[in-house]
Records
---
Amino acid sequence: MCARKLGGQTVELSRPVSVLAGGNAVGRKEGEGPLARCFDYIDGDDTFGEPTWERAERAMQQRALSSAAEKCGCPVQKLDWLFAGDLLNQCVSSSFAARGQDVPFFGLYGACSTFGEGLILAAMALEGGFGERAGVAVSSHFCTAERQYRTPLEYGCQRPPTAQWTVTGAGAAILGAGDGGPRLTHLTPGKVVDKGITDTNNMGAAMAPAAYDTLSAHFRDTGRGPDFYDLIVTGDLGELGSQLLLELFRRDGVELSNHADCGLLIFRREEQDVHCGGSGCGCSAAVFTGYLLEGLRAGRWNELLFCPTGALHSPTTALQGESIPGICHAAALSAGPGPADKTGGKNGWNI
Amino acid sequence: MCARKLGGQTVELSRPVSVLAGGNAVGRKEGEGPLARCFDYIDGDDTFGEPTWERAERAMQQRALSSAAEKCGCPVQKLDWLFAGDLLNQCVSSSFAARGQDVPFFGLYGACSTFGEGLILAAMALEGGFGERAGVAVSSHFCTAERQYRTPLEYGCQRPPTAQWTVTGAGAAILGAGDGGPRLTHLTPGKVVDKGITDTNNMGAAMAPAAYDTLSAHFRDTGRGPDFYDLIVTGDLGELGSQLLLELFRRDGVELSNHADCGLLIFRREEQDVHCGGSGCGCSAAVFTGYLLEGLRAGRWNELLFCPTGALHSPTTALQGESIPGICHAAALSAGPGPADKTGGKNGWNI
């Protein structure tokens, strides 16, 4: 048969869905960070040759997708589906980037969790037999996000210590039914979790409870402990959010000793003055498609749990005094021998 | 096996995924329209008892989902997945409505096509074996949309003849694997189509090419002609958009004599002064879950093609002089004997 649902929230794929290729493009600040050599393209001034920041972000997302397509020899228009999203109002970076690409398109909004949401939906589509190749493309841009969510770029306001820096970055992955890369094995979509945080300058605190909720569900549903994984990577909890996540698990008597965060990986935090770290859905997308995929292929990690989070508020809800709901979408990937291979059985196909 | 892909863009489901129930809630103007008796709840002043328009929309979406849940005896927290979206920046109506509902959540953005997008993704999830019950919830509210997209409510600006009226409405459907209601049989997700329309007061013209594109793909992929269907229903092309769609097909020598549009169904256009008709993703959602589902169950129509469209621009892109991309997501439903039954064969399960 097909996949099966484990517990309340997790799906176990019954046949391989692999990440065939990842592509990305980032801005200057990201290109000056520790992961620079993992990125396909670094733009020198964040304009990507375009006259507006919005067009720059669109061009960046297109570049990331083209790069992934080129690496696996699958032109974008040959994809069966494209799942895409970004942080802008009406997700225009994604829609406009997909315009003219001649591929069926699903617009997503999960804030900074969108790349995880996209991986999950794309994997579900392929597992279900809906086509052979699906693309996931996500972006964020400091300049488009800053003026939409916060203040005009020229404003030069002070950022508090808990603030994070929206990454100028896009990441795209091409998934394929069958083998051909690190395999997605288990998917745990998240629930909307709100613990009452109202400080829009403290996204880490707003999102950490959602990460705790989804990860707990994942461990419970799969019967796996955190130590099953070589690495558990959140998207952009940042420094404080990461500490809070660890503390939440510590209260359960669980030590997450193998946790990393894309927002902490992508910048040299002190040197690049990003306070609590990088953020934005492009953060997890660029780091996943660059650094994490590379590590999975090189055997640095065999089992990886990728779990980006998102803060689901808007400037309007914040101004209306609402708290900030969060969400975390988790996808488990395996680059080692499949569980079935370890038992000497089939290659994962159950039919 | 599982579903199969037809042609470039359509999926044929290989086992029944049914619409078990539909629920909705609308505002006063919609409750004064011709479909009033099809709606579960009509609010007298569009506030839904809330102190802000944004909270009103959220409450309205929750009401629609609760109504659907009640009708099929499946509490919201027992759903396997919830797919939801709306027109607001960061889709806050949907995220906040899902907060505390304890259900895994996928945020979508397809503008006014979102309900079609949600039906497609939910059906794919269930067909793939991912759980048994999925919810789709979508809303729009005149007051939240008007001031975000156009002008403050107090502004009282003139609306041109091609303008449409954003529906205050929410619709929710609960899909189930197996029989139990009208069956989704074929899904044709749309591509982003842009023919250069820049007039943000003429959404019908912006979206009609996308409807033409998706419908053409659907007919081509399935081998069905328009006459296979008892009704082909777009979401909110409105009067002008509908005329344009018919004209586009007429150029191919095809007469769409069985076309209807939710935006033209929901209001008495002249009397209620809505110019080209209703719009908003709540329009198609409320009409589908009220009027169309009822008609399918009553045998008024056996084969229905539901194809809402969306305009994927934002105020920012419009102000920057961009044109308006559109998208159309189509889902075919059958309430008659299944094709397999007509041939005296199996009930649709191929495994």
---
Amino acid sequence: MSISASPITAMPPSDRSRVRRAAERAHYDQATVHAIVDAAWVCHVAFNDGDHVVCIPTASWRVGDTLYVHGSNGSRMMKRLAEGAPACVTITHVDGLVMARSAFSHSMNYRSVVVHGRFSAVPEDAKAAVLDALMDHMAPGRREHARAPDESELKATTVLGIPLLEAAAKIRNWGPRDKDEDLALPVWAGVLPLREQRLPPVDEPGFDGPVPAYVSRWTD
Amino acid sequence: MSISASPITAMPPSDRSRVRRAAERAHYDQATVHAIVDAAWVCHVAFNDGDHVVCIPTASWRVGDTLYVHGSNGSRMMKRLAEGAPACVTITHVDGLVMARSAFSHSMNYRSVVVHGRFSAVPEDAKAAVLDALMDHMAPGRREHARAPDESELKATTVLGIPLLEAAAKIRNWGPRDKDEDLALPVWAGVLPLREQRLPPVDEPGFDGPVPAYVSRWTD
């Protein structure tokens, strides 16, 4: 997956979306934000529930400029977010451990996005299409195979979207940056890279049809 | 990495740490919480900064019953958390996509921990030992090689700990659970597994000593 660093559509940072720490890692262009969102299976949603702050991981996907989450109508997160509670949505991919000559200069390589805003509920008649996009995100083609949601399943599901407009990406993807006086120290320095790996599919018994491409090619 | 499901030390859930959705996935024993924390490089910290909620990813590690984070004294997150702002810390590992016969029953396999509480600052004279533990978490043995923090580096760093006591783990690690009436549908069902992969180290030039074991064995 490549992260474009060139602004396609710039989104000027708001006061709260502006990156303050390590600002040289900040990106505010849509293409960068979208690529990080699209590479994620889950986001972390922070909001206030009564008098305490909560941070919950949940599946996320994108259509256009909107990040979506979903859940049971009965979920307290779905209820609070649907009411318009202010939210912060964060996605993080850790790409490596950065080993510098000094302990102080150790770091990590990562790609992250922080979104501020409020969710709003997807109307009943648009839910099916937005949930189809979740299926496309998990496995392109899957929606042609799996049984589509029936009316009661759609009714039981809350789907919420938040605009990816007040958003900032942060990327670190370089080697250690030691202080000048540490560069000659006889210490191994470099990056220990990490990435997400796909392991061979685990089949449920009872299916003898042709294996779909998103299964047979999962580890390609 | 194995996740023990057998309670070693049970932590009775508080009202806010009790898992409400999919409660059969909940675990409140220390061994399970610790294993999920120890498998993570970063956590997501949610807190309120003035009148808005914020969720920030940051490196995390554990010593005993405490999860630690660190940052520059100037960071607004460090300042707010050191003041005792209520916080929620969440760690999530995505282990697979769960493909059911019906779109509605699709799910993900994952291990997560949600911690409620407040951080407190590690005193000046204990910082070095807690930061050594971060080094041990990133690469056992590294602290013998890297230049240790000097006094000014230690002074510039805030180290904060939060007790892993008001904490709940949630684990889903099984195949699809379709409704009975969907089981006979001619649809491939199963799990598309995911895990973190370690890729070969990337060396910085200029070091010709022996390569440490945490580098040479990184991908083992």
---
Amino acid sequence: MFKINDNYLKLPGSYLFSTIAKKVNAFEAANPDKTVIRLGIGDVTQPLAPVIIDALHGAVDEMGKAETFHGYAPDLGYEFLRTAIAKNDYADRGCEIAADEIFVSDGAKCDSGNIQEIFSVDNKIAVCDPVYPVYVDTNVMAGRTGTYDPKTEMWSDVIYMPCTAETDFAPELPKETPDLIYLCFPNNPTGATITKAQLQEWVDYANKVGAVIIYDAAYEAYISEADVPHTIFECEGARTCAIELKSFSKNAGFTGTRLGYTVIPKDLKCGDVMLHSLWARRHGTKYNGAPYIQQRAGEAVYSPEGKEQLAKQVAYYMNNAKVIKEGLQEAGYTVSGGVNAPYIWLKTPDGMTSWEFFDYLLANANVVGTPGSGFGPSGEGYFRLTAFGTYENTVAALERIKKM
Amino acid sequence: MFKINDNYLKLPGSYLFSTIAKKVNAFEAANPDKTVIRLGIGDVTQPLAPVIIDALHGAVDEMGKAETFHGYAPDLGYEFLRTAIAKNDYADRGCEIAADEIFVSDGAKCDSGNIQEIFSVDNKIAVCDPVYPVYVDTNVMAGRTGTYDPKTEMWSDVIYMPCTAETDFAPELPKETPDLIYLCFPNNPTGATITKAQLQEWVDYANKVGAVIIYDAAYEAYISEADVPHTIFECEGARTCAIELKSFSKNAGFTGTRLGYTVIPKDLKCGDVMLHSLWARRHGTKYNGAPYIQQRAGEAVYSPEGKEQLAKQVAYYMNNAKVIKEGLQEAGYTVSGGVNAPYIWLKTPDGMTSWEFFDYLLANANVVGTPGSGFGPSGEGYFRLTAFGTYENTVAALERIKKM
């Protein structure tokens, strides 16, 4: 008689966004005259830039002709895209990453979920708290996290690194030594960043204790300040301890188009074994390459027109972030994020819990955000608003909040 | 100090296609005057049908306008595609599969590699021999297969079901009871099929012993005979024991476009737990949905024009299959497959090994095929040719083989 992977049963229900949806639906049903504005989700709203649309149409045309038709893509990605990434995202920043150290995929969520597979189940992970839930959940599914305590909302075998106002929303080096360290900067959900000097400390630490840093740089395009690193490979020694995850979702609006990549330097080894070889074997065995038309669209992201058009798109969202941040500050809130990230993180007023503030905001301003406690226990008492709405909705939402 | 997943190191090198490539390159370098014809790979060569191209262009246009832009897709697929699949691939064949039992993905290779994750590592798998290598390799990575014997090329904890001329290339019910049974019909590499009555025996067996059948129906569109089942859900009782994997790669030429789906009926349970819930949780946690534009292209596959255009494409390849099969028979070979599948499976002549015949065919006809031994020990003495080339190349290859 077959048996299931019991680790799946350990996962607590994923209630955050379904609870939000239920509450919003109930509110709208009871208040048909009110217009609810959603600043809760991390999904983009601006259409794909013209240069991307042109690239997609061009590639579709190629697929319609025998002479230019493309079948199976190379498992690890087309050379034209890997070369463009290596040049623009690494060489131009002075980082030594070769095209064949880049693995093209259909997005950073898949990669951040699958990357743990190439490591032993005995490895211990360390995560920031609050954090993007995929890191922990995929390690639960693999049986790497021990038992769950519903009271503390923590797993016995996970090292949590609190990121609160007291630490300026940055993690401190953990007391217990981890094997795998998940870091995400600019951060989802707090919008916080760390400086290159701070990240260098993490790289030095990982090299010292023999840990691997899984660095999620999905929001890199939103960095506006000079001393914030765009990639972990700006740090010396990162080639022997770091894997970097990148996405086209937020810099180019590919949430529904799907494209991402992972960098594993060939110097990152366990004994004689390159992690690069293991990930290549996984890609070759369990994946069949990202679609040709999406890879051509990814190439267009790096063209001069692409860079210009996408800088405007990022600026559009970052203007929303400014509207939110300054509006909240005017209204007397304690706010962080929003400078190098599309996320604004606010302290709930008057000691409200995250969910109490959610209800209060929905009832009084008809605005939807995300309770910080949904991202981990240290998110309690915080709340996330996102800059991915339209400008008009963002301005209207802040007017309402200021009037509350 | 971090450790890797040691199971990856147990995998023997994947030398089949790289060895083929090396041998072909060496031959071409030594014989610059000869034109090599490749009938070895399972990749399509015909361009996407006009109706697919139109659907892709239409969806790309939608992505370029704010009012019709699509961000994150539903994890499990858009309703419009799931409904089209449920109607055309199941309801129209009298099979009871609901739209919400269909999980849209970026292809059957990913699904066939990932599906084992929701099962216990203690489960024992049974596979046909020869077989598509992904089934075994992904179970090796998960630690489910025991130790490898390089002499027999077999894993200690895998149940092999030989499919040779003696069994008419169909597997027999195994003596040892498996937990997971991988079946692929029409078969890659042999091109064999089983009748509905034969498949019903497997369904009855799985229900009796409490096993799950993972049914790979990627080549379903090539079925031409009446008593060959198009889906395992034509069999009574399949809803309590079967998972079906489907692909758009071979019926619509999506090898480089990427789209597939998996069906898990809600009646398939381990105790109280629906496997449907586990796969939904995996999709929601480790996947971010198939691209909107590809899902619109998938929808077009089921339109009246789509069905007409794609039937012609399949007929084109099946005409190649006929050319290959009849040509080989004329030349005196013992041949199977090619009637309900784009693969032709031939017995190597004069007791040659699969690789000896590869070398002989390359040297004398300048034609490339795939040695059967590359798909498993019972493939030794056989050879695979595919119908996915152009008609002109296929005819030319067979003329050469007949002259050998």
---
Amino acid sequence: MVKTYIFGHKSPDTDSITSSLVMTNLEKVLGNEDAVACRLGSLNKETEYVLNYLDIEAPELIEKVEDEANVILVDHNSPAESVDNIENAKILKVVDHHKIAFETSYPLFVRAEPVGCTETILFKLYKENGVEVTKEIASLMLSAIVSDTLLLKSPTTTEDDIKAVKELAEIAEIDYETYGLDMLKAGTDLSSFSIEEILDLDAKQIDFKDVKSIVNQVNTASIPEVMEMKADLEAGMTKIIEEQGLDLFMLLITDIVNSNSQVIALGKDAALVEKAYNVKLEDNTVLLEGVVSRKKQVVPIMTESA
Amino acid sequence: MVKTYIFGHKSPDTDSITSSLVMTNLEKVLGNEDAVACRLGSLNKETEYVLNYLDIEAPELIEKVEDEANVILVDHNSPAESVDNIENAKILKVVDHHKIAFETSYPLFVRAEPVGCTETILFKLYKENGVEVTKEIASLMLSAIVSDTLLLKSPTTTEDDIKAVKELAEIAEIDYETYGLDMLKAGTDLSSFSIEEILDLDAKQIDFKDVKSIVNQVNTASIPEVMEMKADLEAGMTKIIEEQGLDLFMLLITDIVNSNSQVIALGKDAALVEKAYNVKLEDNTVLLEGVVSRKKQVVPIMTESA
């Protein structure tokens, strides 16, 4: 029996976890009985809320896959965000909504679309393949879209996402606005995390051209509350910069209610933030108004300025 | 008016030309009125036969696109096979059946599948979008699938390709076996080409790890007939090797009736062919039995052996 491991990115968010579950179900229904839903890290509070609410078990935690294992990547495609030994695996499929950052030596199935959430694409795949979207599957899909688009308010939101949420809310019989805000708020609870954990929760390694960076995003309903930890956060960021030889560590503290982000930027290339957004860091921090999307409002702008 | 240039790879084959036309029609029907079908090189004899037979005009020949132009890539994704200034363009979509060999700094629409022909994927896109496959569009699709799969006999052929050809033959009202063989044979007519042109007809720049190579494929109904030009072909290949600093020039002379390929290999790494296929080159040439697919039976094997 050759297993097919299906997983989202490291530091998994709700889209990565639910897409693993939803894609695994699709594969199984279509005849791939050896598909296994996996994850590459701990659940965040938001995803815990979702799985508890829906009473669904989390995907299996894995650190590696066997050599030449079959894998399906959801919600990511970059090797840097994937399982450590991805170069030894055979990638069967990719379903994703991020920029393309992988190469293969063989043709494969890739379904990428510039939409707000992987689940929006998976919803289409279910329809195209005539596979039933059960109440449970619809609830998982809906949760991820609401999460990735911050209740359809992020600039990453597309018509497809909005249409999907409306259809899915009917199937799931969920008032997505009430449920979604509760879910997002659950995700902002940092009380049980150490500084190290907060700095790892949604950290992505991204190189802005030659600038080796980590961009971490923490959602909150109150920026001042998170900024009370600023000194400790900076100490933790400095440690990671030294350990990993980074040029930049950018922490986005995103206000999900008012749609702004307070940035803390450290590292020898912290001034790249000033250049990219035409702002002045004071005491390593600045408020970026209207910025909520790392993918749409940070990566392209920082890359262009680097 | 911002145009969207839609094109296949350099040294275009029937799939690249017809996919450009078929994708452009799809875009137009779906509301992108500024889509323009383009091509990056001369038509080969096979494609000329197809367009003549169907009385359809060839896509517009282009060498460059404007800076920041919108482009849609069909039947390729590698920058090396694309328009020269692809790095200045905005790639909106990719529809392809090759290995993934491009990167972006932004999310985009990618539809790749490991099937025999881009048109097999486009046929699905038409269906998914509820767009009518006219007799003309079906004929174009059918021609490309028959071409890429050598009448469904190449090992690249999948169930999806077979299914598509059967459905398309009905819509197109074409006996695909008779039409297909005539089309393939038309493509083997080299009489009007100079040696330089033959060596450029379907040449792909491929690096097998560090081995900088060109792999060119010429279809024929008679290998001995092509081998009569061996001395001239070798002289031309040697010239290109020197001009481009290649490590290997591999010319596949593929017998489309009997499904074999005679290889001529030149360059300092010509022995890679011997290693990859466990054969001995004699006078720079060897018959590779059953080898007809560059993508499936050359690229992965040569890459692994390099």
